[in-house]
Amino acid sequence: MIPQFLWDHAPAMTVAVPLLAAFLCPLIGKFTATGRKAWVLAAAAATSALALFTAWRVYTLGTWVYVFGATVPNLSVPPDSGGIPIRIIFEVDAMSALMLVIVAIVGFSVILYSLSADGKRSGLEGYYTLFLLLIASIVGMVSTGDLFNFFVFFEISGLASAALVAYRVEAGRAVEAGLKYFVVSTLAGIFMLFVIAILYGQYNALNIAMLASRMQFTMLDKIALVLIIGALATKAGSVPMHFWTPDAYALAPSSVTALLVVASQASLYGLFRLIFTLYNLSLNAATVGWVLIILGVLSMFVGVTMAIPQKDVKRLMAYHAISQTGYMLLGVGTGLAVLGNVAMLDAFGRMAMEGGIFHIINHAIYKGLLFLTAGAIIYRVGTRDMNRMGGLGHRMKWTMIFFMIGALAIAGIPPFNGFASKLMIYESVYLFNPVLAIIAMVVSILTLASFVKVFHSIFMGPQLPEYEHVEEAPTAMLWGMGILAALVILFGLFPQQVVDSLITPAANALLDQSGYLASILGGA
Amino acid sequence: MKPTPSFNRSLWVFHLNSGSCNGCEIEIVATLMPRYDPERFGIKLVGSPKHADVILVTGPVTKKMADRVKRTYEQVPDPKVVMCVGTCGESGGVFYDSYSLAGPIDDVIPVDVYVSGCPPRPEAIIHGVVKALAKLERLEAAP
Amino acid sequence: MALTLSTGSGFWNPVVWLIAIAVVVVVVYLVWRRGEAGYTAGSAQVKPFISGNAEPAKKVAQMPASNLYWGFTEALSGYYSRVVPAHTGIVTDYLLWVLWVTAALFLLVVIT
Fold first, then answer.
1. Which of A314, A474, A487, C98 is disulfide-compatible with A116, CB 3.0–4.6 A?
2. Interface ipTM
3. Distance of alpha carbon C39 from alpha carbon C76, whole angstroms
């Protein structure tokens, strides 16, 4: 039923299809604009299908190793190479598969949304090209098993994101935000380049599995580790390197913002991948774990307290994205901190990691939903300033319902998905250190407070005379939001299914370095 | 107005002061206290006219309060009983013919029961409540 | 099909929770139905009670979003007066933050 071609080459196609489609966009757009829309939608659908297929195969059959340019796709160590994997290798294990699922879901919903949200603007030749390029780069970042390849996709995503943030050239401020994002992203990229230079210079390999097997944790490796944390935590938007996040997220078009969230999470994935698979127990797990925990707690607290006084709705949501990233760092940091201690790892370390990783997918879905609803409101009302909005609940009923679902999910209210992952984080982190869990709960309450403020000031209140003409958002946008909202509810009602099928394999894949190495190096 | 059987005995009272000297207020509070104890019948003071069955209006209606008395009366849900406590509401009392009055209460809102006195004793107020209940029974009997 | 999410030290079953909430809602509804309607819709009885004053115009009465949490921001003014100015908007400051944090992490991870 599924062609053999896909069985062999799906990981590569998941990157190739959006890449090719991206660069054909301007050509098609020259002839027909609706043709371009159809092309983009088809490309997004194809990419999502391929990503889901890859993820499904990885979850059922195990890690998928794909070697570019070899005679057979899984020939990672050619017989004449002396035991070294020499080509660019995509290693899709369960954690990568989870990120592919996220990209598939959010990418498709966001492009469906963007067809009507940005459909009437000019400059679309470049817009959809960059959009599909961003999706391709995120897929590449999460699938690759090669450090330099990761850097390449990292830079592509930085370029594409910065250009997309600056898309609204007429508003000036968006261009400034794009510039800020670009500069910070380039600094992070330079750090990554140093890391690659350090590791390559020492171990003569770029493949992550090869480096992991040769890792000796010298002083240079410690420096590399710190640079990795600095660079990737910056790109993920953790405090105190988060300053670019509100600017970029607020001024980008809303569909782009939802995808930027996924791009930030891909950087977070890179951080976890490099720490857990490249270094694993060779590093000082307690120290690095606590570093991640401190970054996480700072992100949570500063993110939410800065969100409360904001009056720009997308800036407020960007601060919340920072805050939720803190939850992921807290959960996975706790898992890392007890990595050396098997008893604690089994008692709560795995649960904390599963909570943090579950939070990644939950956050991508509900944050995407929230940004899309904010975009719908801005599309109809024309301003991002909450002081001037009010009473929109009378006219935009579906948008209000979707916003409510997203806001309750992010605040961790049952029965939505945010509650499930936050419960896992609270209970396991409490066993590690009660203070951290209490801070997490307080931040959750402040999140609810902040979204009550947003909900009240945008949707509640009497119908204002200047918004008499406002109607419900267009259908394509509603469908995009609807897909994400349905997933929020679904993941909330059946959390154990999601954890068993998607999250636990991912957490185990992160913790189990030897499995990763065995897939590529063949158990050597 | 079609009161239910429990309505007849358990009346929730909202007190509205339209400019009184507070003498009647003190007597109303004395009525509700344990010495005469109407709370055993379920009669209690409420804070919002939207919860009230009975409006107890005291004081002559000053010009500034006239509009507000009217609006508060309109916001009380049916069925409702208006009780005027004290002679100020009937005729102006000691403030008769003052420059600042908008008239006795029944110029502003329709009144069902008058309790005279300056201030009326708690027994008189209870007698007024009994009359209000009797009136309600008459209204209920008549279709 | 396991419906219960089990964390190591607790459990959470959303379907059972929803059923419980649904039962409670039904009970509440049945109790509520026994009450009286008590008001006539569309009359002055639906207007808010503001001590008898007239309801102000919609525009005047609406609290803008920036002022909704004044008490909170005022109480934490010691915190906000330091953190908010740190968000300068100057990109070179952002780069300085990244560099300083990386330097601090150096000291932490490399030295210990």
1. A474
2. 0.88
3. 44
